[in-house]
Amino acid sequence: MLPARRDEPGAPDVSTASRRAAPEERADIVSLYQKQRKIYPRAVTGWFARWRWSMVWATQLVFYGLPWLEWNGRQAVLFDIVARRFYLFGVVLYPQDFIFLTGLLIVCAYALFLFTAVGGRLWCGYACPQTVYTEIFMWIERRLEGDRAARMRLDAAPWKLDKWLRKGGKHLAWLALGLWTGFSFVGYFTPIRSLAQSALQFGLGPWETFWTLFYGFATYGNAGWMREQVCKYMCPYARFQSAMFDRDTLIISYDAERGEPRGARGRGDRPQALGDCVDCRLCVLVCPTGIDIRQGLQYECIACTACIDVCNGMMDKLGCARGLIRYDTQNGLAQHLSRGQRWRRVLRPRVLVYGSILLLILTGIVAGLALRKPFRLDVVRDRGTLARVVEDGWVENVYRLQIMNATERAQRCGVDAAGIEGIAVALRGPAAVGPAEAIWLPVALRVPPGAAASLGPGSHRITFTVHCAADGVPGAAAQVDEQSTFLVPR
């Protein structure tokens, strides 16, 4: 039998039935998109805040000042992509030396693993560019708009002249700092003095203009607008950091055994039933990511230590011992370990593995740089003339030798060849290489008729030997060997 239609007698009223459903049977609709609550971090002072600002000064002096530092009449640190030269103080690297740059990146990665295993998110709290520039941008914001309460009042106020001036001045200062940051970044790839001269004359090229604006607006957006969103949702480090943590890793910890149960009280007024935490929520108000550290270890915590400074200040006012929120380990909190006991647990297996690998890679990089020849050699056959028979029956092959001077002294070079009896070298050009210069040197190799006949047609292995000596430097010349082939025609 067919079911009754809604308009037929006896058909149930579906809408009425659904309205009469039990509350536990109703479906709650939860939006996947929620407007982000703006965080107004409160300013904080203390021992860790001073350390954090010292790292801000140190990192920014290096970043902004390094491109202006000169070394041997040139920029000390320059990654000249157009000329394919990488200058790191007294070291000149070519694209063939990319292994050293790769090693440097691996060293940075393992150093991050090591520091994370020992001290948690030290990089995030003190040296990460996102943290550093957010700290600088927030300092500008506080100078122009005031501290937390003043900024909240200003945001809630109508748009009048005072608000326009404060907000506009803040964003102009942010944009200026962001553009200067982008300019300094490009200065690592284009000589910064010529870059500054071009900028003053409004003559920047399209490449320099794009990257200055791109990096500048990225700094402005990340540190001025997105702030904690970058750390919470965009940074991959927040997701995999837990793989490097263990129960003996130093983290920002709340001592719940000492602090609970929470309760408000005055100085010297402490009922026996209450812990040291007065639930002032200052640790939440100073947190740049807006978390409550009293809820335990959270991936949003960037270890900025602002909660430690503000909590220590409150403990001082209440006459309680400092350290309710402190650097500690999970084992340290659970087992009441002393500082010495915690330090003795630093040298555990994963720390030793990270440290050993890091030391091994560093040793390899230093040894490679120390044993590196002062010049490099590449041999390319002349494709226009592979092999030919010249006067008196001699067989000639033509090559192009690229000699790359990896020093900042002029080099005088000579070329020899071996592998075939009677082989002779004829240079077709100068054999002088300037400082940090690469030249293409045409070289012709000739083999006498008798030797060519004994070898027979085909390809035969030979060895080029280039020896170079720096001008004005006594001592033996450096030597580099490179394999190639000599063709005997049919």
Characterization of the model:
With 490 residues, the protein is of the alpha+beta class. It folds into two domains: 37-372, no CATH class; 375-488, Sandwich (Immunoglobulin-like), CATH 2.60.40.10. It has helices at 14-19, 47-65, 98-119, 122-127, 129-145, 148-156, 161-186, 192-200, 206-226, 228-234, 237-240, 256-259, 282-285, 306-318, 330-335, 339-344, 349-371, 449-455, and strands at residues 70-71, 74-75, 77-80, 85-88, 91-93, 251-254, 325-328, 375-381, 388-389, 395-405, 411-418, 424-427, 432-433, 438-447, 458-470, 478-488. Strands 8, 9, 10, 12 and 14 form a five-stranded antiparallel beta sheet that branches. A four-stranded antiparallel beta sheet has the order 13-11-15-16, with no helix packed on it. The longest helix has 26 residues, at 161-186. The radius of gyration is 35 Å and the shape is elongated.
Name its key features.
2 domains, 16 strands, 490 residues, alpha+beta, Immunoglobulin-like, 43% helix, elongated, four-stranded antiparallel sheet, five-stranded antiparallel sheet, 18 helices
